[in-house]
Design a protein that fits this description.
Chain A is mainly alpha-helical. Helix content of chain A is 44%, strand content 1%. Chain A contains eleven helices and two strands; from the N terminus they run αββαααααααααα. Classes of the chains: A mainly alpha, B mainly alpha. Chains A and B meet through α1, α2 and α4 of A and α8, α9, α10 and α16 of B. The structure holds protoporphyrin IX containing FE (2 copies). The site of one protoporphyrin IX containing FE has 28 residues of chain B, from α8, α10, α12, α13 and α14.
Chain lengths: 300, 544
């Protein structure tokens, strides 16, 4: 240890450089001169940084910070970008500011431009619940079946989207499938079997189930479960189900009741966007049967 | 596993194990139910297991031979490598599984414990801390002794560090499965596990310093600087980011003391420096030891090592804010993070360049020796991923890459290409040495592992680059009429082929790890008597 490492220096035959003279169990280091290129790059990176510091908000100065010569503000930049896009949409989007749906659906050129945008709006906001083809799913109604809870004309749909169903909006649409837990289990079974047979179109209309249904259910679900009363109760005769129309699921529905929730969009979408979506949704049964929503644009 | 402890040390160890069991009992009894009590029971079982293990050999096994100080203490290194392999299998097994779930979400089993959200941190903790951490601890003990030419300062602390650290990892991942989390990425473990890790880490640091102080070499080798930076800075980050107030001392839930944007900044100051000091500094230490040893070449430039060390250590601390571009974090903090990230590239490339230039004169070995080739590829990926990182840190680039799978691609080019490769290089260098053999039991299998690892990494990383750039572009493409060209769902659907490819790449990589583990096991089972006479501490010192 008394030796200085100079005593151990040797020349590396491959590179021709000296070693530093340290040796850790066989590991040595070369005394290669500092490569200039590393310094050049460090200076370049530093120069880039200095330029960025001068142009952009950068160093803290106590309670404030340097603003940068460009005077950029990320909030304002984001807003400006948004406004620019909004201005680009204005030409056609502003046509939707009034719910004059008859005129709007007659303007095929406008629809060709607007419907693809509506399809994306639907995918981004609605598909998570209603399905990517608006086909619905357990707990969420299909919007392409042609059978409506509240009505499928654009104005009604616009209202549904604006206030929601059983939502937090003060004007929300309200509906409820009440619980029939007071009904005798045997009766529930009977009516459930009748309802389960409705979609096939071969239900026995003189059965005890039919009678129970007429007495207890038809006020909301319509005569023979045909629906169409537009009070939030679905038709029970079609093939599209919210919760399910097998006997077992129906018994749960009867025992516990149901109250689906459709959020209000008044605070999240502009009135123009809501009208656009309303027109799009109301046309789904004709345009999108089975397709991916995009084809809605194809059919004028 | 032959523990070479003196009778006295065995008694102390039994005392410590008993204390651990008691602590576990108190935790379990106090918490009564929930994750904390399960963790108490785990600690108690571990403590009791150790008491029996040590009690069984207390007087029966001969005590450590008197010339113990004439040998290095490699028991903890052997155990650490085994643990690293086990965690590697768990962590990457879960990684492949969650990768498959992203392609095939319907396969999610109907239990909360196996949901994606709980398994993902099992993957990250399993690989970073379990696999990476054990490899770091194991190699740090080895490198520290060899480059200091002295035995570890005492015989018990390395075991405390190793066993304590693995208890932390086990607490963390089982906690996630039970729904326990602090909701801070890479710091999900709850308050009591964090406190425990602080204790373990202090023991680790003190052991390191004490051993360095006894060194028989005049100079401290650069690898030790990196290992020390790793230990010290990780302690600082861990403590600050995990400051939290438990809801009750009898339960697992706690709330961080940070709030709002400060919380975000502290989290990513931690998060990025976890990358820097856990996944980079420590592994550079590993590289600086095993690369010259395996290639038989001197480090190309001592001066460059110094520049890189201080450059990396200084610049990294500033760059956490590049994880929060375009957020509520003030613009000026983002600018600083961005510029320091760009400057950071220079010392990073200096390290990678130094490693590659060290191989000059040994390229024929790189060609023939898969172990050295692992290290070569690691250095290349280190260069690639740091270049990519500095590029991603530039704000406009980040506006494209952020929230996309490009980040995931960057992460895995760093972790698979750099971290895992250098670990494999170190393992294949070490295991034969530690088990008295010339080579691994199946030298050809190393070659197989190498190609599986490289092709797995490339498939993973390239598919994620494509995925990320596709996502980023789809999200920002507007039609001329100002409407978005794609819905978010479109971009999700577009990911399917990339996610499938990633799963395949991951499976290839995992296959390599399985081969590596079997190869190590076969090597350990056929241990030989080979001893390098030079591989001994200088100037043995009396035990403290
Ligand atoms: C078999 C190989 C591996 C596979 C298949 C794999 C797969 C994955 C997957 C699917 C994710 C989640 C991505 C997402 O949420 O979109 C992930 C995240 C992550 N993995 Fe891996 N992984 C592997 C190996 C590793 C290794 C060895 C490491 C570290 C040493 C690692 C570190 C990480 C980290 C840090 C993240 C979180 C990234 C982030 O949040 O940005 N992985 N991995
Ligand atoms: C010069 C070096 C590096 C720089 C400047 C850098 C920069 C970055 C940037 C800008 C991000 C993306 C942040 C975002 O958009 O969310 C990122 C993410 C990440 N990087 Fe790096 N990186 C570097 C090296 C590395 C290396 C070597 C590794 C791994 C060994 C690594 C691991 C990660 C991880 C795990 C994340 C994901 C964090 C998360 O979101 O969970 N980085 N890095």
């Amino acid at each position: 240890m008394a030796q200085t490492h100079e005593d151990h220096r040797e020349v590396d035959p491959v590179t021709g450089h000296d070693t530093t003279g340290h040796d850790w169990g066989g590991i040595k280091e070369l005394n290669t001169p500092f490569p200039k290129i590393a310094l050049v790059f460090l200076l370049l990176a530093f120069a880039y940084s200095v330029v960025a510091w001068i142009l952009l908000p950068a160093w803290p100065t106590g309670r404030s910070h340097t603003r940068g010569l460009l005077g950029l503000d990320q909030g304002q930049e984001a807003l400006a970008g948004y406004r620019e896009l909004e201005a680009g949409r204005k030409a056609w989007m502003s046509r939707f500011d009034k719910p004059d749906f008859a005129a709007l659906s007659a303007d095929h050129a406008l629809l060709a431009e607007a419907m693809p945008a509506a399809a994306r709006l639907f995918q981004d906001n609605c598909a998570a619940c209603h399905g990517s083809n608006a086909q619905g799913g357990p707990g969420f109604p299909a919007l392409n079946s042609g059978h409506w809870l509240w009505g499928g004309d654009p104005a009604t749909v616009a209202e549904t989207i604006t206030v929601g169903i059983n939502s937090a909006d003060p004007n929300t649409r309200v509906s409820q499938m009440p619980s029939f837990d007071w009904m005798a289990i045997a009766d529930r079974q009977t009516v459930a079997e009748y309802v389960a047979s409705l979609p096939s179109g071969k239900a026995d209309q003189s059965s005890a189930g039919a009678k129970l249904f007429a007495d207890n259910c038809a006020s909301c679900h319509g005569e023979g479960g045909k629906g169409g009363l537009q009070t939030g109760a679905p038709t029970l005769t079609d093939q599209s189900f919210i919760y399910g129309q097998d006997v077992e699921t129906e018994l749960t529905t009867l025992a516990k009741g149901r109250q689906g929730q459709m959020p209000t969009w008044a605070a999240r979408l502009s009135p123009e966007e809501i009208n656009l979506l309303a027109l799009y949704v109301s046309r789904l049964p004709e345009t999108a049967a089975g397709a991916d929503g995009r084809s809605a644009a194809a059919v004028p | 596993m032959r523990v070479s402890l003196t009778t006295n040390e065995r008694q102390v160890a039994i005392g410590l194990s008993f204390a651990l069991a008691l602590m576990g009992l108190i935790m379990a009894a106090a918490a009564r139910h929930g994750p904390m009590s399960v963790h108490g029971i785990m600690a108690m079982a571990l403590g009791l297991g150790l008491v029996f293990r040590l009690g069984g050999v207390l007087y029966e096994d001969p005590p450590a031979s008197p010339d113990r100080d004439g040998h290095y203490d490699d028991g903890p290194t052997r155990a650490g490598i085994t643990m690293a392999l086990i965690w590697g299998l768990i962590g990457m097994g879960v990684g492949v599984w969650v990768a498959a779930l992203l392609y095939w979400p319907e396969a999610t089993p109907p239990w909360a414990a196996t949901s994606f959200g709980r398994l993902r941190p099992v993957h990250t903790t399993g690989v970073i801390f379990g696999f990476g951490g054990n490899a770091l601890i194991a190699t740090s003990f080895y490198v520290l002794q060899r480059t200091s030419r002295t035995r570890l300062a005492d015989a018990l602390s390395p075991w405390v560090v190793l066993i304590g650290f693995n208890l932390f990892c086990a607490w963390a991942v089982t906690g996630y499965l039970m729904g326990e989390t602090q909701s801070k990425e890479y710091a999900e473990a709850e308050w009591y596990a964090d406190l425990w890790l602080v204790l373990v880490w202090i023991v680790y640091f003190v052991l390191y310093i004490r051993t360095l102080a006894r060194r028989a070499e005049p100079h401290i080798y650069v690898a030790n600087w990196y290992y020390m930076a790793f230990i010290l800075v990780v302690a600082m980050l861990h403590i600050v980011n995990n400051l939290a107030l438990p809801v009750s001392l009898l339960g697992a839930k706690s709330f961080t003391i940070w709030s709002g944007v400060q919380d975000a900044m502290i989290q990513w100051w931690y998060g990025h420096n976890a990358v820097a000091f856990f996944l980079t500094s420590g592994f550079l230490g590993m590289l600086y030891y095993f690369l010259p040893v395996r290639s038989g070449r001197p480090i190309w430039s001592y001066r460059l090592s110094i520049l890189s060390f201080w450059g990396i250590t200084f610049f990294y601390i500033w760059v956490g804010s590049h994880h929060l571009h375009y957020t509520a974090l003030p613009y000026w903090v983002q600018t600083l993070g961005m510029t320091f990230s760009v400057m950071l590239l220079v010392p990073s490339w200096a390290s990678a360049g130094n490693a590659l230039a060290t191989l000059n004169g040994a390229w024929h070995k790189v060609r023939d020796d898969a172990t050295l080739r692992f290290m070569f590829v690691a250095a290349v990926f280190y260069g690639l991923s740091t270049f990519e990182g500095s590029f991603l840190a530039i704000r406009p680039v980040n506006s494209l890459s952020h929230y996309t799978d490009w980040t995931i691609g960057h992460v895995h080019s760093g972790t698979l290409g750099w971290v895992a490769m250098i670990i494999f290089g170190a393992i294949y260098s070490l295991v034969p040495l530690l088990y008295g053999r010339e080579t691994m039991a199946w030298p050809r299998a190393v070659e197989w592992h190498f190609w599986l690892a490289v092709s797995g990494t490339l498939i993973y990383v390239v598919s994620m680059w494509n995925a990320g750039i596709t996502q980023g572009l789809m999200w920002r493409t507007y039609n001329p009429d100002g409407a978005l060209a794609y819905s978010f769902l479109d971009s999700v659907r577009a990911m399917a082929p990339f996610y499938l490819l990633r799963t395949i790449g991951g499976a290839l990589f995992l296959t390599g790890v399985v081969i590596c583990t079997l190869n190590c096991r076969a090597t350990m089972r056929s241990a030989g008597q080979r001893q390098d006479a030079r591989d001994r501490p200088l100037a043995p010192q009396p035990a403290e």
